[in-house]
Design brief:
This protein folds into 2 domains: about 170 residues, 3-Layer(aba) Sandwich (Peroxisomal Thiolase, Chain A, domain 1), CATH 3.40.47; about 140 residues, Peroxisomal Thiolase, Chain A, domain 1. About 30% of the residues lie in helices and about 25% in strands. A 5-stranded mixed sheet has the order 1-7-6-4-5, sandwiched between helices. A hairpin with a 3-residue loop joins β12 and β13. α7 packs parallel to α8. It is globular and about 60 Å long. The structure holds oxa(dethia)-CoA (UT7). Oxa(dethia)-CoA binds next to α2, α6, α7 and β12.
């Protein structure tokens, strides 16, 4: 079989209009702008409007990615959406995006790996494109975490926000890929840690949606080691090193985790894309939101070596190395 690469054709993002600042939060719970900025780097987050659903955010991001690529939705045969906050228990929110794009062929499904969801979805789409089963995939991360937050719990409600991002991937025979595309993907999980970050409800347990619960300090303690380990696997698989990286685009949970990970990996701070300040932790949406920002402002260019990584509930974690 011919070797195939999954090449990025475009990316896009969408943030809901309503801005919730740290000062707004200080009126709701016992917190301060100073504490939030110092501990997390977050200044504000976006909140979806009443009736604005995860699939609405995902659809807008997907449309932006198609526009960036100059491609039509009819060319897409796989819609893969990473989300932990679907519109409904089922069907998958990806089918709403598919319908919104007017696509009636191919396949659409959701994937749930919490904050690592976009990395998991990229790796899954890459495998399906490489198998020859699909030609073009919209890989979306979309979340409305505002709907699962306990707005009386200052230890979690200040951290998260709503948003969506998407990339369009195309399967290209390797001789046409010009050394572009996804070079390697590495996924990990360890369910022993499932109670460190979870939602206390669900269809099979309580019959309710539930609220996010987190032992933040515990998650923090594991995060840097886990992401740097899996990034080392990506380096070992490709022969690239930290010096070769043009842009490091990590999951945007906390600026301190991002800075520590970059430092431990030996990545120049000037190569780190950090957007957590303007949208908080948007879980599966955070990496494509950061990618779209760095692509739109001219930082990421075709041919750049881009390192992505994430860690989150489960625990799940992973890394993708790609040439844009
Ligand atoms: O996407 C992956 C999942 N999530 C993450 O990656 C998050 C990982 N964890 C973190 O980012 C950090 O652990 C937090 C930002 C959640 C917390 O930062 P920390 O430096 O680990 O703080 P802490 O939990 O150790 O809390 C320090 C203090 C506590 O008070 P005491 O016990 O020292 O008196 C907290 O009660 O800060 C207090 N605190 C707050 N104070 C003001 C906790 N939340 C707040 C708040 N405002 N919002």
């Amino acid at each position: 079989m011919k070797e195939i690469r999954s090449v990025v054709l475009g990316c896009g993002s969408y943030l809901p209009e309503r801005v919730l600042t740290n000062h707004d939060l200080a009126k709701m719970v016992d917190t301060s702008d100073e504490w939030i900025v110092q501990r997390t780097g977050i200044h504000e987050r976006r909140i979806a409007a009443p009736g604005e659903l995860t699939s609405d955010l995902g659809l807008k991001a997907a449309q932006a990615a198609l526009a960036d690529a100059g491609r039509d939705a009819s060319e897409v045969d796989l819609v893969l959406m990473a989300t932990s906050t679907p519109d409904q228990t089922f069907p998958a929110s990806a089918v709403s995006v598919q319908a919104g794009l007017g696509i009636q062929h191919g396949a659409a499904f959701d994937l749930q790996a919490v904050c690592s969801g976009f990395i998991y979805a990229l790796a899954t789409a890459d495998g399906l494109l490489k198998s020859g089963a699909f030609k073009r995939a919209l890989v979306i991360g979309a979340e409305t975490f505002s709907r699962i937050l306990d707005w009386t719990d200052r230890t979690t409600c200040v951290l998260f926000g709503d948003g969506a991002g998407a990339v369009l991937l195309e399967a290209r025979p390797i001789e046409l890929a010009e050394d572009r595309g996804i070079l390697t993907a590495h996924l990990r999980s360890d369910g022993r840690y499932k109670s460190k970050l979870y939602v206390d409800g669900g269809p099979s347990s309580t019959g309710t949606v539930g609220h996010l619960r987190m032992e933040g300090r515990e998650v923090f303690r594991h995060a840097v080691g886990m992401v740097t380990d899996v990034v080392q696997d990506a380096f070992a698989a490709t022969g690239y090193t930290a010096e070769d990286i043009d842009w490091f685009v990590p999951h945007q949970a906390n600026k301190r985790i991002i800075d520590s990970s970059a430092h431990k990996l030996g990545i120049d701070p000037a190569k780190v894309v950090t957007t957590v300040g303007m949208h908080g932790n948007t879980s599966a949406a955070s990496i494509p939101l950061a990618l779209a920002t760095a692509r739109a402002d001219g930082r990421i260019k075709v041919g750049d070596l881009v390192l992505l990584e994430a860690m989150g509930g489960g625990f799940t974690w992973g890394a993708v190395l790609l040439r844009w």
